[in-house]
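Milestone M4 deliverable, item 7.
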Amino acid sequence: MSQLDLGILGNGSFSALVDDHGRIVWCCLPRFDGDPVFSSLLAGEGEPEHGFFDVVLEGCVSSEQRYLRNTAILVTTLRDGQGGAIEITDHAPRFRDRQRIYRPLMTVRQVRPVAGDPRVQVRLRPATNYGARRAPTTHGSNHIRYVLDDTTIRLTTNAPVNYILEERPFVLEETIDFVLGPDESLETAVATFARRSFEETRSYWFEWARTLSIPFEWQGAVIRSAITLKLCNFEETGAVVAAMTTSIPEAAGTERNWDYRYCWLRDAYFTLDALNRLGATRTMEGFLRYIENLVRASEGGHLQPVYGVTQEARLTERTVDLPGFRGHGPVRVGNQAHEHIQNDVYGSVVLSATQAFF
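Output delivered:
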C-alpha cells in the first residue's frame, strides 16, 4: 500500500522519493514536472505492476531508514527473520567537479550485506507516459537500457545482469552497485564511480550545511528542513517548486488533487525569507533572478499565480490514467491556476525583492 513516509533524493536537477523499504516510488525526468519514470506512488492499492525500483530482502520482517547526518544521502536497513540484514544507500550525485557543480540526472544505489546470508531480489521496472506501460529493454554484459517515450536511461551495475532482467533472487555476498542515469558509458568501474560519487556528495552536503546560519536549538531539524528546501530548487533557472509530486489528495474522496510541481509566486516571499535567514545566499539569489525574469517577460505587467520551472506560462491541465494515491484519483498533469487572476502575487513579488537588501 502506498504511504507518505518517504525519503527524498535530489541534486538540483531532479528528485526521487523512496519508501521505508527502499523502494523508489516516484521520480520524474528530465526535471520535476517531467514524465515519472517511477510512478507507483500513484498506482492505487495493492502491489504495482511497474513504475518502481526496489531491492527485496527475502523474509524481510523489519526496516529502518535514516539520512546520513547533514546530507541528502538516504540509508535503508532491511532485516529478515534469520538474522540477515542488508543496507541500501541512495544518493543523487552533487559535487564540485571541473570548476562546476556536477548534478546529473542520476541515482546511485549501493547495496551491502550487513549480517547473515541475506537473499535479495532486484526489481527495476521503469514506466513511461505516466505509468501507461513498462519500458522495453536492451542489455549488455554490465548494463541494461530502458527505452522510454522521450529518452533512454541506462542501469550500469556489477550485479549479474540476467538476475536483474529475470528478477531472480540471489545471495548477497558483497556490495553491489547500481548507477541509473543517462544512456552513457561510465568512464570507470561502476564500484569506483559509486564510491567516489558517494564520498564527494557527502562532502558537498557537509560543507553546504556547515555554511548555514542556524539557531542553537533544533539544529538537526532546521538543517534537515534546509536541505529539503534546497532539493526543491531547480538550479538551472533558480525556480523553487511547491512540491515534487502531483495529485496527492488534500482529503480522501474529494478529488482535490492538484499538480504542485511548479512555482507559486505567493510562496516566493516566505521561501526567500527562509533562505535569507539560513544564509543560503546562492539559492536565494537564483530564485530572485528567476522572479526577475518572470517580471521582465510579463505582458503588460500581468503576473500569473504559477509558472513552470523554465518560466512556462501555459500549464494546460489534463488527467492521466494512473489510479491515484491509494486509489484516490484523478491524477492531474498541469494546473489550471495559471489562468486565474490572483492580485496578491504583486505584493508577494514586491516583498520578495526586499530580500535583496537585507
